[in-house]
Write a structure and sequence with these properties.
The complex is a heterodimer. By secondary structure, chain A is of the alpha/beta class. Chain A contains 24 helices and 21 strands. Chain A has 3 domains: 200 residues, Rossmann fold, CATH 3.40.50.970; 142 residues, 3-Layer(aba) Sandwich (Rossmann fold), CATH 3.40.50; 198 residues, Thiamin diphosphate (ThDP)-binding fold, Pyr/PP domains (Rossmann fold), CATH 3.40.50.970. In chain A, the strands form 4 sheets. In chain A, strands 1-20-21-19-18-16-17-12 form an 8-stranded mixed β-sheet, with helices on both faces. In chain A, strands 4-3-5-6-8-7 form a 6-stranded parallel β-sheet. In chain A, helix 14 packs parallel to helix 16 and helix 17 crosses helix 18. The longest helix of chain A has 32 residues. The relative contact order of chain B is 0.15. In chain B, 33% of the residues lie in helices and 30% in strands. Chain B contains 4 helices and 6 strands. By secondary structure, chain B is an alpha+beta fold. Chain B has one domain. The chains are: A alpha/beta, B alpha+beta. At the A-B interface, loops of A face helix 3 of B. The site of magnesium ion (MG) has 7 residues of chain A, from helix 21.
Chain lengths: 651, 160
């Protein structure tokens, strides 16, 4: 095959003509615009956006297994071998740390190369959150690594088992500022990792690989950050005897977990039986340790309400008659709360329980029991083990009044949603742009009440003020369906990364996503947010991951509510009617620009068709207005959130 | 000497301190009244006065800066009334036969007073604390009052 035709450089006249078309569309606020850059904008002799043949060839190459042959193995290969044996589920990276990412990908571990280290780190986090599996991320030593910090911190706050690998420079140059990119990394992840180590002695690479997976797969997970100077990853080992602690997984790690003592279970049963209105807070540990069936058994055995918490939702689901995810009003009625797998404890008062509520907490390790919330009983146990023991020990009991109260509270929440939607429709008509309540309702109708099975779509829920609306409508019906992307740390922006991670999980059919393998993923973000991660539409398109991202475009940072006094507002504003959809088009994906609820509905339909039929992603730019933030002009401004439940994001 | 009723009130407040709700709880008796001071929720200082002679427990100036007869003042009264009605489940209700609740707005600060009979002191104190908690957690958790909460209840402007 010959060289592709050289793209014609864009002339000034072309550029102006195109800009004028953009401006025209932006000015006509009722316009819908749909296009793919390759199809509509390309001049006849301009090379189309396309995936390189080399990309397709490379991704189709057979994996290799790293066994000690005549050439031995490098440090990077030894490390990659452990990753493969441990079932590392995926790697999301940008080039840098070359020998390491090459070796990991060579083993056949699914690897995705993207555009921005921080966003690829968020993709690894997003992948892990919806699968429960360990994922890795990597970037080059200095600048690539420092670019990743926001998403490393966010992953740690979400207790994601994330392996951060980032380095390639020589220790020989340390303190000499020789060459480029030198960075002593470990102090920079202080406070945002579970475990970290700069590996300096080459023959200890296997030993530290083992330790990394011990940390990633035991107790309460978190970020593990390893850095490998070139003396380590480039070292060559003739045979295993040259490596320290070259043991198989069964020798260096145990699958054994803590089980509750029968005495503690008896105490828990006693507290539950004395309670009139018990409620389980099912945190991410229930998901990570696959306790969802046991959770259902416990709840149904004794009519115990369940509210979900943590960065990922769906392990109990919003639909169950005992679900309190929408039952905000009933939270304050619980007289006993049972925290299970709540890895990040709220302070008293942050969760909407009453001041007399009694508390039991089940946690995999003892060190955190009693933190932030005084306990009536603390149980050291794996979540699934504790729930199974409880299900076996609890008597059957019906709590009709409590179940009725939960149902009434859910109904009240939905009625308030109906009121908000009616307001949203009115406000949209008044202004000619889309109110965020309408975005929430239209999305939910499309995902849960249309042609798609409601359990199908995994969602990456980002954004800020817009999210306070959409969270009220978006649902989770099965484990791993909803990723609350900014959970706790609240970084604005890496949402396309989370979408990419969820999309990769769907593409590969990992963990609970297996049943919906190949289905498109959906996401939501703000207009400040999209700027951080929109470039990964290239990555989505390149890897044929079908994803649909709604951008709530209110022409401002949502924190414009904090702009006070003279000369403040300009810092919070963007140009109006910016065409984020066109950026997606320019990256080979689809873009839609909509200004009415009906246009948005239709755009979702077209995006879904393109996603399922052609594996093409779409960015839907929903024009809105920052005026909707006003509590006076458009009450209620932004609805308030309450924790735990669907509107939560802090713990 | 403290009255039996005062002792019941003090016990109840100490119970909430032990449960992690009230911090830095202090009790000062002056004349026959007892004043309790404590820090609650997002590090907000509260003052509660128990008058054993009238068996009233008052959250003094609980919500500052509310103009009398303003929308917020009216909504607060409606919220309190609702919590004494059949509209809320029994365990969330302040039984009006046992506890009378009054909102008093003096100089633009709303105090909430609960009065009860001798045999209902324990119930009355618990209900008063729960009602105050409901006001702070539910009544104020409304888009309309977010700037008010930033100003007076240590809600971070990040949340506004
Ligand atoms: C990286 C980062 N920068 C700044 C903030 C502070 N912040 C919180 S929300 C927000 C506004 C986000 O605006 P946008 O994404 O447009 O969402 P909107 O509220 O408009 O829906 C800002 C600046 C943050 N949380 N993270
Ligand atoms: Mg915005």
């Amino acid at each position: 095959m010959g060289e592709p035709k050289k793209p014609r450089s864009v002339s000034r006249r072309d550029f102006l003509a195109r800009s004028a078309r953009g401006a025209g569309a932006a000015a006509a606020l009722t316009a819908t615009s749909v296009s793919r850059a390759a199809a509509t904008d390309a001049a006849p002799n301009m090379a189309p956006i396309r995936v390189a043949d080399q990309f397709t060839k490379s991704i189709g190459e057979a994996p290799v297994s790293f066994d000690f042959g005549p050439n031995g193995l490098t440090g990077a290969e030894v490390f990659a071998r452990v990753c493969k044996a441990e079932g590392l589920a995926a790697l999301f990276c940008c080039p840098g740390n070359y020998t390491m990412i090459n070796a990991i990908s060579a083993t056949g571990i699914p690897a995705y190369g993207g555009r921005i280290e921080d966003i690829m780190c968020a993709a690894a986090d997003g992948f892990s959150r919806v699968t429960g599996e360990v994922a890795a991320t990597s970037g080059t030593e200095g600048p690539g690594f420092t670019n990743m910090i926001m998403s490393i911190a966010s992953a740690q706050r979400a207790h994601t088992p994330l392996l951060v690998l980032a380095s390639n420079m020589a220790m020989a140059n340390e303190d000499r500022i020789g060459g480029i990119q030198q960075m002593y990394q470990q102090p920079i992840t202080e406070g945002i990792k579970k475990y970290g180590k700069r590996i300096t002695i080459p023959n200890r690479i296997h030993e530290y690989a083992q330790h990394a997976f011990r940390e990633l797969k035991s107790g309460v997970p978190g970020v593990v950050h390893l850095d490998f100077p070139s003396e380590v990853h480039g070292a060559r080992f003739k045979d295993p005897s040259e490596l320290k602690d070259f043991w198989e997984a069964s020798k260096y790690r145990t699958e054994c977990v803590a089980h509750p003592s029968p005495k503690d279970i008896a105490k828990a049963v006693d507290l539950i039986q004395k309670s009139e209105r018990p409620m389980i807070v099912a945190g991410q540990g229930v998901f990570l340790h696959k306790g969802w069936d046991a959770l259902k058994r416990v709840a149904e055995m004794n009519d115990i309400a369940v509210v979900e918490s943590g960065p990922v939702r769906g392990h109990f689901g919003d639909e169950h008659r005992l679900s309190a995810n929408l039952a905000s009003d009933a939270l304050g009625s619980a007289d006993l709360v049972i925290f299970v797998g709540q890895y990040l404890m709220p302070n008293v008062g942050e969760y909407r329980f009453n001041p007399d509520v009694k508390a039991i907490r089940v946690h995999p390790v003892a060190e955190d029991l009693g933190r932030n919330w005084p306990l009536d009983l603390g149980l050291v146990s794996d979540e699934k083990a504790a729930l199974e023991a409880l299900a076996d020990a609890l008597p059957k009991r019906q709590r009709a009044a409590w179940v009725a109260e939960l149902a009434a509270a859910r109904k009240k929440f939905e009625s308030l949603n109906d009121e908000y939607y009616a307001l949203g429709v009115k406000y949209s008509q008044q202004t000619g742009v889309v109110h965020p309540a309408v975005i929430g309702k239209v999305l939910a109708d499309f995902l849960y009440r249309g042609d798609i099975p409601k359990e199908q779509t995994t969602f990456a829920q980002g954004g800020w003020t817009g999210a306070s609306w959409t969270r009220r409508w978006l649902r989770a019906y099965r484990p791993g369906q909803m990723n609350n992307c900014p959970y706790q740390y609240y970084p604005i922006g890496p949402d396309v990364g989370h979408l990419l991670g969820a999309g990769a999980a769907m593409q590969l059919g990992v963990g609970p996503q297996k049943a919906y393998q190949g289905a498109p993923v959906f996401g939501f973000t703000g207009d400040a947010g999209i700027a951080y991660s929109v470039m990964e539409f290239d990555t989505l398109t390149k890897y044929k991951i079908p994803a649909i991202m709604t951008v709530y475009n209110n022409n401002a940072w949502g924190m414009i509510t904090a702009a006070q006094g003279p000369r403040s507002h300009h810092m919070y504003l963007f140009q109006e009617h910016l065409r984020y959809d066109r950026i997606a088009e320019a990256l080979g994906a689809r873009g839609e620009y909509v200004t009415t609820p009906d246009q948005y509905k239709a755009a979702l339909g077209r995006a879904y068709q393109a996603a399922t039929r052609e594996k093409i992603s779409t960015l839907i730019n929903v024009q809105s207005s920052r005026d909707f933030l006003s509590t006076q002009t458009f009450p209620p401004g932004t609805p308030r959130n309450l924790e735990p439940g669907v509107t939560a994001y802090m713990h | 000497m403290k009255s039996d009723e005062t002792a019941v009130v003090l016990d109840a407040f100490q119970h909430y301190a032990a449960r992690g709700s009230f911090r830095s709880l202090t009790a000062v008796s002056a004349a026959s009244k007892t004043e309790l001071r404590f820090i609650w929720l997002r590090d907000v200082a509260f003052r509660v006065v128990f008058d054993p002679a009238r068996r009233t427990l008052t959250f003094v100036d609980m919500l500052p800066a509310i103009a009398p007869r303003s929308e917020m003042d009216r909504s607060l009264r409606a919220f309190v009334k609702l919590h004494a009605s059949l509209a809320v489940p029994e365990h969330r209700r302040v039984d009006p036969r046992r506890v009378a609740v009054k909102v008093i707005n003096r100089g633009g600060a709303a105090s909430v007073t609960c009065s009860f009979k001798t045999r209902d002191v324990s119930y009355g104190v618990r209900k008063a604390v729960h009602l105050a908690h409901d006001i702070l957690q539910d009544f104020l958790n409304d888009g309309r009052y977010i700037h008010y909460c930033v100003e007076h209840f240590n809600v971070s402007p990040e949340m506004a």
